[in-house]
Amino acid sequence: MNRRYRKTVIAGNWKMNKTLSETQVFAEELRPLLSRSKWCDVVLCVPAINIPNAVRLFKNTRVAIAAQNVHFEDHGAFTGELSAAMLREQGVKYAIIGHSERRQYYGETDFTVNRKVHAALQAGINPIICVGESLEQRELGVTLEYIAYQVKVALAGVPMEKMRRIILAYEPIWAIGTGQTATAQQAGEVCQSIRTVIRKLYDARVARAVTIQYGGSMNAQNAAELLAQPDIDGGLIGGASLKAADFAEIINAANQET
Predict the structure, then answer these.
(1) CB-based contacts of 56, cutoff 8 Å, min separation 6
(2) H or E segment to which residue 17 belongs
């Protein structure tokens, strides 16, 4: 982390978990544990049906509510989809875009990711853009090249003045939901390379200011080591965000003195 230049953001991605009543229980458990959250921004990416309830439950706290997906059009015949304007009106401040599960199961591509980034920015929603390699790509030694390509496509056409609203989340596909985690050095290397790509696309000032998260099975046990890497500015947390106590431990690790 480097708080001198950029903010630290811990985001919990609940995926398809928690009913409305379970969301309320979670909020009641987490709110008292947030008192030490001095430097770290906290985001909860909840199922769409839970968004209005979550916004209400976390009102007047440091927790912002995010969507797990957003459509790239502002209206139309897209059954089951939600536009950025719809989400923003419900109080959504962030949206995950291009998560590997969306790519794997629902046909998300690098080019639809780019369109969704622009739609989110237009509506005043901050994108959390996910990039990451498969195990096969890592073993072939093309990780950095592949992720550089993903970053370049995702950010195509995004003007410099909007880059402070962008978060990049490095999520090695082979470490999502598997219990495997990239070593702190591996994660730090990729996040550093992402910052290098941004510097080449924009400039050093923009690159220094962009928050880059790690999203591969970060938990209470490994968070401090991962966050000690200078180019890792937070986490996109899956399973460990479902229990308030575990999520709070990760938030506390992000609030450590640096």
Answers:
(1) none
(2) none
Instruction: Give alpha helix (H) positions in 107-258.
Output: 110-123, 135-140, 143-154, 184-201, 204-209, 223-227, 244-254
Report the distance separating Cα 59 and Cα 55, nearest Å.
Answer: 6
Name the percent of the chain lying above pLDDT 70: 97
End-to-end CA distance of the chain: 8
Tokens of 238: 């899956």
> If one looks up domain 8-254 in CATH, what number appears?
3.20.20.70
- Please state the rounded mean pLDDT for residues 54-62: 95
Q: Are 189 and 229 in contact (CB under 8 A)?
A: no
pLDDT attached to residue 255: 86
More confident residue, 226 or 180: 226
Residue in 72, 90, 71, 66 with CA at minimum distance from that of residue 81? 71
120-134 confidence digits (pLDDT tens): 999 999 999 999 999
Interval 252-256 mean pLDDT: 87
Within a 10 A sphere around the Cβ of 199, how many other Cβ atoms? Answer: 15
Q: Residue 212 belongs to what H/E stretch? A: strand 211-214
Q: Which residues have a Cβ under 8 Å from the Cβ of 176 and sit 6 or more positions away? A: 100, 101, 132, 215, 216, 217, 238
> Which strand (E) or helix (H) includes residue 184?
helix 184-201
- Cβ within 8 Å of residue 26, ≥6 positions away: 18, 242, 244
Which residues carry out catalysis? 99, 171
